[in-house]
Design goal:
199 residues; alpha/beta; Rossmann fold; 2 domains; five-stranded parallel β-sheet; 11 helices; 5 strands; 46% helix; HAD family phosphatase; HAD-like_sf; HAD-SF_hydro_IA; HAD_sf
Amino acid sequence: MEAPQQPGWYLFDYGMVISTAPEAEDWEALEEAAGIPLRHSGSTYWMHRLDYDEGKLDPVQYWSLVLGREVGIGLASELDSLDAIQWSHLNLDTLDVLEMLHSRGARLAVLSNMPAAMAEEFSTAPWTKYFAEMFFSSGIGLTKPEPGVFRHVLDTLATDPAEVVFIDDQHANVHAARTLGINAIHHTPGTDLLRELGL
């Protein structure tokens, strides 16, 4: 029997796919430095996050909005570093899948909603060696699930939507990708990614 044809590209989300959720102690360190609670869904950390992810705010502007007072570049840089640390815990099962796909010669790319400071922090991280292309919302000026994000990726990769397998943990992002004809897979953290990919 002939082996199934490999897609042109595997496109991976970062948060909750390549990385795991922040640990309680990570949030505690960030909240201690900020002086306010941040982890709950209605906090100022999340309220202004899309604008930060889209590059509409620089670090000083973002963290000043989060803290409700003007902050300097020193504190903003400290908070950015703590924020990157809490999103740096890697999903070892996903890394195994990336290693396998990479060894098979698959073309891999990342598409993540991520502020420029964090993208820069991760630019030399060991996991990046698997990826031929990395797309971050702050560099595109749009966040998922905006269709323009996916069109930008398709244009840059010079590929058809049907040639891309996209893996993301958010229903809205998966739906938006499918609307454009991308083969999108909704990843549930803790489940078998190989099975989700049909490998």
